């Protein structure tokens, strides 16, 4: 089968998006008709059958398309994207190159992780959003190197870097206080309110949580002040142990 080349990528993106919405509407209409046929006489549509998965609060099945301020199918999409997602002018070529370079580093990190092991425990992608493929310019000239000799966080350090303050009960009390004490040197790592960018999606859980990136140096310096307060049991819990492999009896692998 011969496939026609794409002559207008923006128009095709728009057409595909509209076709997807129309397909979703047709499925919703068909499902509603089927439910109506299967519903016993006298019952109401609000009677949920036993075992039906309940929706998350705030989920809405309406066909209204989510707000999309970038509009990839319209001229100016690149500029709108960088202004909206990075608060940077779309003609800032140097910034776009920095984002693309960091993304390529991430691709290299992932490949090395799966084929050779962790390249660096300190590396992270320092942006909430990805660049466009068209921003991958001169990436062959990049010299990708990762810091060697790094070590992973200890268990409680890791929890401090990923938990919200609402989960502080899983940490020793002095450590948990660092998440809620207004005078904590790292209180800014644990905002109670933060923006969730739907980024063209429909539900909050699909969006991008715009949380601050944890500063490793500040975190480690701060937790050093509460390390002496760990109990013996907590110290044991905070060590990196051996990997354990569980297999069934009779396993011959």
From TrEMBL:
GO molecular function per UniProt: 5'-3' RNA exonuclease activity; RNA binding
Compositionally biased tracts (Basic and acidic residues): 15-25
Entry's Gene Ontology BP terms: mRNA processing; nuclear-transcribed mRNA catabolic process
InterPro entries linked: 5_3_exoribonuclease, Xrn1_helical
Entries under Pfam families matching the protein: XRN_M (PF17846)
Bias kind Polar residues: ranges: 1-11
Entry keyword set: Exonuclease, Hydrolase, mRNA processing, Nuclease
Annotated ranges, domain Xrn1 helical: 46-252
Region (Disordered): 1-68
A single cellular component GO annotation: nucleus
Acidic residues bias locations: 58-67
Family as reported in the entry's similarity comment: Belongs to the 5'-3' exonuclease family. XRN2/RAT1 subfamily.
Name of the protein this chain belongs to: 5 3 exoribonuclease 2 homolog
Source organism: Alectorobius mimon
Lineage, top ranks: Eukaryota, Metazoa, Ecdysozoa, Arthropoda, Chelicerata
């Amino acid at each position: 089968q011969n496939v026609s080349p794409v002559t207008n990528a923006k128009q095709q993106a728009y057409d595909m998006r509209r076709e997807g919405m129309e397909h979703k509407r047709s499925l919703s209409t068909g499902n509603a008709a089927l439910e109506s046929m299967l519903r016993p006489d006298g019952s109401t549509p609000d009677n949920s059958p036993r075992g039906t998965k309940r929706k998350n609060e705030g989920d809405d099945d309406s066909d209204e398309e989510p707000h999309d301020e970038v509009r990839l199918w319209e001229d100016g999409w690149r500029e709108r994207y960088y202004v909206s997602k990075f608060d940077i002018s779309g003609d800032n070529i140097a910034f776009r190159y920095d984002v693309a370079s960091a993304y390529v580093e991430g691709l290299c990190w992932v490949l090395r992780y799966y084929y050779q092991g962790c390249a660096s425990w300190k590396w992270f992608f320092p942006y909430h959003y990805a660049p466009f493929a068209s921003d991958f310019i001169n990436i062959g000239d990049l010299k990708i190197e990762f810091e060697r000799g790094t070590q992973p966080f200890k268990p409680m350090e890791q929890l401090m870097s990923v938990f919200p303050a609402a989960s502080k009960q899983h940490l020793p009390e002095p450590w948990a206080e660092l998440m809620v004490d207004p005078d904590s040197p790292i209180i800014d790592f644990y905002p109670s309110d933060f923006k969730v960018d739907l980024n063209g999606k429909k539900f909050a859980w699909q969006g991008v949580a715009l949380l601050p990136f944890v500063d490793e140096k500040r975190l480690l310096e701060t937790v050093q002040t509460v390390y002496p307060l760990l109990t013996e049991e907590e110290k044991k819990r905070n060590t990196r142990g051996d990997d354990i492999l569980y297999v069934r009896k009779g396993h011959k692998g």
